[in-house]
Structure formats: structure tokens, C-alpha cells
Write a structure and sequence with these properties.
With about 210 residues, the chain is mainly β. The protein has two helices and eleven strands. The strands form two sheets. Strands 1, 3, 4, 6, 9 and 11 form a six-stranded antiparallel sheet that branches. It has a five-stranded antiparallel sheet with strand order 2-5-10-7-8, with no helix packed on it. Strand 3 and strand 4 form a beta hairpin.
């Protein structure tokens, strides 16, 4: 797991640049996701294609005394944790981020190279509202050559679609999307990562504004 202090400093800098633009008429600004409420999903093939042959992801955490996660709170790992998990609602400074860990297989740790997570939206989106998705990935080192992919979907629309060739330094992929129509509260939201290696990805926040 990457340096918590370094990541927190980076997030603080990035989140200081919040936009003040307003959305459409009747918009309901605020958080669209709760990063403690993501669950594994079989949806998403129409957006991400079928998982390639050999794709898998062990969802049950391994050697993880912190599991099960607290119901509505983030997980604050000790520096000496043995926990290996595909995804975690992780405490990072004052933030609760969705951390997704991909990894190579060995005798103890199954491969995780394709994962889609889902939750219902917390609020309605009105036509003309703007939705901002903020994500992060660590320095990506494996496999080389290879490609990593992060995506975020609102209902029937792919809002964030980010791909990068490996190796690469850490980045903060983000997207601002203007809703073409209304989406009620409870609309399915998807967050998807495909890549393998000792790499880390974060969904920081998704906001309507």
C-alpha cells in the first residue's frame, strides 16, 4: 500500500481546486456516492466488454483482521497490517476513498485484474447538472508492456473513461460531465478497474454541482 501521508497531501492539494459553477435548473448539489457502500457487481459488460480469458478477482479479503469493514465508516489500516483486499473503503487523512488493489498471483494471493463495483446514486441528477468524478492511481509498474483502465458510469452513460500505458507515474484522472437528461436518485453507478500488478487505484469523490 502506498504512503498514506504522501497520498493525503496529494489529495489535499487536488481537492482545493473545487469548482463553483452551478448545474441545471432545480439541481441538487452534493455527493453522488458513499465510498463505504460499494459492492461487487456483475453489471458493466455493455460498457467494459466481457472480461478477457483468465480474468478473476478474489473479493473476500485475505489475512485481514480488519474485516468485516465497519458498516458506515472507513478502514484505518495499521502500518503493519497483513490485510490483502481487492477493494476497501479506506481512511486517508480526512477523506474516505474507495481503494482498489490489483495484484499478481502467487501461492497465497489470488489474481485480481478485473473488477466492477456498484451502488445506487445518493441523489437525483437533473438535465444540465454537472457531475465531477475524481480518481487517482499510484505509480503503475506492472505488467510491462500493459495498460490500465479506470471507468465510472452513471446509468447508461460512461462519465470517466481513462486508459494509460504502463509503466507510468501517479496521476489524478478526473472528468466533468454534463447530464443530458434527468437521472433519479437510486440510478445504478459503476466503478471499474482492469489491470494487474502491484498497483493501487482510488475513487476519491463524485459530486453533483
Amino acid at each position: 500500500m502506498l504512503s498514506r501521508f504522501f497520498a493525503a497531501v496529494c489529495l489535499s492539494v487536488v481537492l482545493c481546486s473545487c469548482s463553483s459553477s452551478s448545474g441545471g435548473e432545480g439541481s441538487n448539489p452534493g455527493a453522488l456516492v458513499d465510498n463505504t457502500q460499494w459492492v461487487d457487481s456483475t453489471r458493466g459488460e455493455e460498457f467494459f466488454g466481457a472480461p478477457p480469458e483468465g480474468s478473476e478477482c478474489e473479493i473476500e479479503p485475505i489475512d485481514c483482521p480488519e474485516f468485516p469493514w465497519p458498516g458506515d465508516d472507513c478502514v484505518d489500516f495499521e502500518p503493519t497490517t497483513t490485510c490483502i483486499a481487492a477493494y476497501v473503503p479506506e481512511c486517508l487523512d480526512t477523506f474516505t476513498v474507495l481503494a482498489v488493489y490489483t495484484r499478481m498471483p502467487d501461492d497465497r494471493v489470488p489474481l485480481c485484474n478485473w473488477i466492477t463495483l456498484e451502488q445506487p446514486s445518493l441523489r437525483a441528477i437533473r438535465a444540465g447538472d454537472r457531475v465531477e468524478v475524481r480518481a487517482r492511481h499510484s505509480q503503475l509498474t506492472a505488467p510491462v508492456p500493459g495498460e490500465a483502465h479506470i471507468a465510472f458510469v452513471v446509468g447508461d452513460e460512461k462519465v470517466l473513461d481513462y486508459s494509460v500505458t504502463l509503466p507510468t507515474d501517479f496521476e489524478f484522472p478526473d472528468a466533468i460531465w454534463t447530464a443530458p437528461k434527468d437521472y433519479p436518485a437510486g440510478t445504478p453507478l459503476l466503478f471499474h478497474v482492469d489491470n494487474h500488478g502491484q498497483n493501487e487505484y482510488m475513487l476519491i469523490e463524485v459530486n453533483v454541482f
